[in-house]
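User: For a benchmark we're assembling, each entry needs the component sequences followed by a predicted structure for the full assembly. Here are entry 17's components. Please fill in the structure.
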Amino acid sequence: MDSEDESPFGYDAYRRTCASHTVLEMLASKWVYLVVCALRKGRLRNGELARKLEGITPKMLTQTLRVLERDGLVRREIFPVIPPRVEYELTELGQNLAGLLNQIRSWSEQHAPDIKEARARATGENEGDWAA
Amino acid sequence: MDSEDESPFGYDAYRRTCASHTVLEMLASKWVYLVVCALRKGRLRNGELARKLEGITPKMLTQTLRVLERDGLVRREIFPVIPPRVEYELTELGQNLAGLLNQIRSWSEQHAPDIKEARARATGENEGDWAA
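Assistant: Structure for entry 17:
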């Protein structure tokens, strides 16, 4: 470990047993990215999130929201109406993360053409060795 | 989709069929994060990467490097010595991404205490419903 890589916080994400490694693991999910990005401009209901995140199953959405709640990034509010209304919003910590994850989302959109091109090149060179 | 969320590049990571969504999918891996972060200060050999990334299996390291190569983020160089020496380095596109991913790694280290605390709280409140 070179000194430049040492965390000023005493945590080291390269170490599998470090708590920060498990944070990185939690963040390594496209649904975590997208739920956090979708919530960054304000609270949403379950159905609104489901519509925004094309292709997410109800089970996966619930699971993602539970993980984000457990980790203190999302807060759930239940309104005692009939039928009950449930809304989700980012906590302060979640807001803090949202800016970063949104940059990753932006990067993905901005560089999708470069990566498509690289994939096409790799497929050509490897005669179908790589799945696109 | 509200206008603020519209990508200026015509790509939309919220759409499952969009190329940028598959980029987000590729990035949603702790090993992709860590390999890209580890390479950001210069080229490394396979064994150097394996030592830096605690807990990565040889198979997972190879698989991660192949994906990054396929997507144009990492370049592999083979030196014709005996035994052959193989080195990996970030391409320009990979360097461009590395800054962002390193911020995520830093965030994980900086906020690991907050997230540990939230997890402990959730475990307490839910009487063991959540795995820490």
